[in-house]
Amino acid sequence: MAHLDFEKPLVELEQRIRALKAASGGRGAEIDQSVRQLEAQVDRLSRELFDELTVWQKVQLSRHPDRPYFLEYAEALFEDLLELHGDRCFGDDPAVVAGFARFDGRTVAVIGHQKGRSTKEKVHRNFGMARPEGYRKAVRVMDLAERFGRPVLTFIDTPGAYPGVGAEERGQSEAIGRAIARMARLRVPVIATVIGEGGSGGALGLGVANRVLMLEYGTYSVITPEGCASILWRDGAEAPRAAEQLRILASDALELGVIDEIIAEPVGGAHRDPKGAAERLGRALRRHLDALSEVEPAALREERYAKVRAMGRFASV
Predict the structure, then answer these.
(1) Handedness of CA 208, 214, 220, 226 (dihedral sign)
(2) Within 13 Å and on the Cβ side, how many CA atoms surround 3?
(3) How do the domains of the chain map onto residue ranges?
(4) What is the pLDDT of residues 227-286, one digit of tens each?
(5) Which residues are CB-contacts of 311 (< 8 A; sequence separation ≥ 6)?
(6) What is the mean pLDDT of residues 87-99?
(7) What is the CATH code for 59-309?
(8) Where are the alpha helices (H) located in 25-69, listed in sequence order?
(9) What pTM was computed for the model?
């Protein structure tokens, strides 16, 4: 497992535990006692470390290389995932996975940003930065979901939409705008979840929903801290300072009314217990989906509009 600098004390203790377990083979009572003591120490240290994280450390956790990605959550939560490819216009975008699956016996549309693990997969997925065809593919699946009365579940994890020349030539801003408009008009329940990074319009293109959920160590912002720092101070190294100014954390988003619920992660973050994180996410999705299933289609759309209009805080001068 990869680790961040502040996780190093935990990693060292865990390595000692593995070494002791390998040496004992389950036969040494003294070693077993030492292992239990170290495990208790790991639990205590984890709680202490993660209770005192800085804003920048939480940003790093949202990008942790071992953090679960959309397809890993999909495997844990859904059955019979049928992925659809292509936007019927230009091509397919592997940075956005979209299709239909079964969730607790219900057929739902699922759409999510997907990053990669290996270097080859990161390039293939374009580091989770979607191109126009990714958002047009998402709209295609949303259209099908509305036609057949299926809820839409989106999963956000991107530093932002891809800003390359080709993407701009093919209408990046128009594609994101169309996705936002389509989500606003849907007559089926829509639940969006920020599972990692929620960056800029690339995130908002999948983020207009009746309920917006966010994992505890996710981030949601109009721009990455590095991008903000390069604009304000001409120095990307000022990213930690920018992160504090952006109010990028889940707690900030909840306070400002941008999201509806923070989903607590297992101690140490989702990357330390992906199964536990998926179970917590699944429970939240079930609860909100059950509630929204009782709402009339017209009311769903009106509620979504009112929710977006009410975001933020304003002061008259």
Answers:
(1) negative
(2) 14
(3) 5-52, 59-309
(4) 999 999 999 889 999 999 999 999 999 998 899 999 999 988 899 899 999 999 999 999
(5) 256, 257, 258
(6) 95
(7) 3.90.226.10
(8) 29-51, 55-62
(9) 0.90
